[in-house]
Design brief:
The complex is a heterodimer of chains A (294) and B (325). With 294 residues, chain A is α/β, with parallel strands linked by helices. Chain A has a single domain (2-293), classed as Rossmann fold (3-Layer(aba) Sandwich). Chain A contains 11 helices and 12 strands. In chain A, helix 1 (13-26) packs across helix 2, helix 7 crosses helix 9 and helix 8 (221-232) packs across helix 10 (262-268). With 325 residues, chain B is α/β, with parallel strands linked by helices. Chain B folds into 2 domains: 4-122, Rossmann fold; 124-276 and 306-322, Dihydrodipicolinate Reductase, domain 2 (2-Layer Sandwich), CATH 3.30.360. Helix content of chain B is 38%, strand content 23%. Chain B contains 13 helices and 12 strands. In chain B, 44% of the residues are buried. The chains are: A alpha/beta (294), B alpha/beta (325). The interface between A and B is medium-sized, with 25 and 24 residues.
């Protein structure tokens, strides 16, 4: 069974560093002092900033960089990676969401994976073969750290550690993969398996944003997502990419929570209740009708 | 009465709104459209527009066109509007008139020189709730107005969404200050400057505080304090930081105060819009402003907001950029 830690944090830099270190201690993660190239993958979603609960807070990534340097060396080569998407350009997202300034301050690189050289690979998932791309930056990394958000996501129900790796797909027109989204998420996780996942639950996005002040960590992305799905209020077995990832051997559905009590955060997460679902259905029908008649 | 033949230049987000509205205009018909995008031209073709051009010059050379609707990125307003004036076409141009005062002046001068009518698109004036407030102010129902507050907080260019709510690509020119003329203040502020000057007359002073939440070289939010010659003091708040769009104007008089905004539709309005295609279009400020433009052309009267008013609004916004707090 995989360890998944839950730590309550206050959103200030000193506290964030301490919370990250506490999280790593709880899951018994130790940095290899000889590590040289480190890649960090936050979740940048369009140009929404972290207050919306849609994107990883750059302050968390900044604090993580400080923790890495304390545990390895000051000269370690760190890159923050993201790729262009159908409606997002990294060069603007990095600047608008504060990553450009943070990277300047911390002397780390920002890498747009869309511009990186790639290695194409055939990956089999659920008896289906996909041709996916592995960016060189990630292939050459000694340590790959996934820093996803905890949020609802149309299409996959939930976005966490596994879904965040979909953003490592360098091809910008990602809607091309939406037909086989769950399979492609799992396929990408097969070729880009993170060594550590640190989930940003500082501000989460359910039916609305909510300051949860939660930091979750785990080496197993499947176990981390299963645990996070319980907080979000979705049965993890109903999230197809999680079940598929478990079947494909990426991780385990079984986990042990260490640190804070999960139910405390589950109570606070803004979930879809019956009233929300009813009004959501009416709004969806209305907007579809308006769009159709226009 | 002779029917006015219209040409539409630019089939981006606003261009498509105008395309839909033009179909329902009385006394005019849209006979031509131009855009560099073949996909957008296909949309126009499916709407029944026969003359389609990838080069706007070809549209302007069409002698059958009386007037053009210019719905292009701001940096293209001047070259296209000046060429349209030279071709003797009346002009309806989207706000803001231009990127800055001097560029706007070149457009108004060209229109004057060639004797064509020029109207700037400010749809708030044509929304019933704002037009109603204007009537109340003119009738003195609120008493003497002393303070007003106007806000437009929106998702701006960063959060373009499809009708289903999914994000869609932002045209890159929006990120270039040299092409837009500025940020939220010139984009959204020009609406509010226009509506406030329409309500309260000439501006005596304006001071602004500009904000850069998204670390770009243009402001993504701004607060301005405007002093009017009439004695009214107004605050103007604009922002590109929110997920949803809202326009709101509060007016405080010595007897009553009034509050109006873009979201004042009733349930009946929504039902009407769903059930009637015409109701959906004619109730919008975008439709009403075009219908008014066509009426002005038919009756040979000068439209308002005119090019001069668009120019005056640009001057006020330039002053706001200069006079920061």
């Amino acid at each position: 069974m995989s360890l998944v830690s839950l730590v309550k944090v206050r959103n200030n830099t000193t506290s964030l560093q301490q919370s990250i270190q506490d999280s790593l201690n709880l899951i018994q993660f130790r940095f290899d002092a000889k590590v040289n190239k480190i890649v960090i993958k936050p979740n940048l979603c369009y140009y929404w900033d972290s207050s919306t609960g849609e994107t990883t807070d750059q302050k968390l990534v900044g604090a993580l960089i400080d923790v890495i340097r304390e545990n390895t060396s000051e000269s370690v080569d760190i890159s923050i990676v993201e790729s262009d998407a159908s409606a997002m350009r990294c060069k603007y997202a990095f600047r608008m969401l504060g990553y450009e300034k943070m990277a300047d301050d911390k002397k780390v690189k920002l890498v747009n994976l869309t511009n990186d050289s790639i290695q194409n690979m055939n990956v089999a998932v659920h008896n289906r073969s996909f041709r996916l791309s592995l960016p060189r930056c990630i292939a050459e990394a000694d340590l790959f750290i996934n820093v996803p958000k905890m949020k609802y996501m149309a299409g996959t129900k939930f976005s966490g550690a596994l879904k965040n790796i979909f953003g490592c797909n360098p091809y910008p027109k990602k809607y091309r993969y939406h037909k086989w989204l769950d399979e492609v998420i799992v396929g990408l996780n097969k070729i880009m398996k993170p060594d550590l996942c640190l989930m940003d639950g500082l501000v989460v996005r359910g039916t609305r944003p909510q300051k949860l002040g939660l930091l979750m960590a785990g080496a197993d992305p499947v176990a981390l997502d299963v645990s996070a799905a319980r907080i979000v209020g979705i049965n993890p077995r109903s999230i197809r990419h999680i079940s598929l990832a478990s079947t494909e051997g990426i991780g385990s559905l079984k986990y042990i929570n260490v640190g804070e009590d999960l139910s405390k955060f589950a109570k606070l997460f803004p979930k879809k209740d019956a009233k929300y679902k009813t009004w959501g259905f009416i709004a969806k029908v209305y907007s579809r009708l308006v769009a159709r008649f226009n | 009465m002779k029917e006015i033949n219209l040409g539409l230049i630019g089939l981006g987000e606003m261009g498509k709104v105008h395309l839909r509205n033009c179909i329902h205009l009385k006394g005019a018909r849209l006979i031509a459209a131009s855009d560099v995008s073949a996909k957008s031209l296909r949309v126009a073709k499916s709407a029944g527009i026969k003359n389609l051009y990838s080069d706007y010059n070809e549209l302007l050379d069409n002698p059958g066109i009386d007037a053009v609707i210019i719905s292009l990125p701001t940096f293209l307003h001047a070259p296209v509007a000046i060429r349209a004036a030279e071709c003797g076409k009346h002009i309806f141009v989207e706000k803001p008139l231009a990127r800055h005062f001097n560029e706007g002046l070149s457009i108004t001068s060209a229109a004057k020189r060639h004797g064509v009518k020029l109207m700037v698109g400010y749809p708030l004036r044509f929304m019933p709730q704002f037009a109603g407030l204007k009537k109340s102010l003119e009738a003195g129902i609120l008493g003497d107005v002393q303070i007003a507050a106007a806000s437009t907080i929106s998702n701006g260019p960063f959060f373009h969404r499809t009708e289903y709510g999914t994000p869609r690509p932002v045209p890159s020119w929006w990120f270039d200050k040299t092409l837009t003329g500025g940020g939220a203040l010139i984009d959204l502020g020009s609406h509010l400057v226009d509506i406030l000057t329409w309500f309260f007359g000439d501006v005596a002073t304006i001071r602004s505080q500009l904000g850069h939440r998204f670390n770009m070289d243009f402001e993504d939010y701004a607060v301005c304090v405007m002093g009017f010659k009439s004695g009214v003091v107004a605050t103007l708040n604009v922002g590109w930081f929110a997920e949803y769009h809202r326009v709101q104007v509060d007016v405080y008089g010595t007897v009553f105060h009034a509050h109006t905004g873009s979201k004042s539709q009733t349930f009946i309005d929504h039902i009407m819009k769903l059930t009637s295609k015409r109701a959906r279009n004619v109730s919008s400020g975008f439709y009403q402003e075009l219908q008014y433009f066509v009426t002005c052309l038919s009756k040979d009267i000068s439209p308002a907001p005119s090019g001069q008013q668009g120019l005056q609004n640009l001057r006020i916004i330039e002053d706001a950029y200069k006079n920061t707090l």
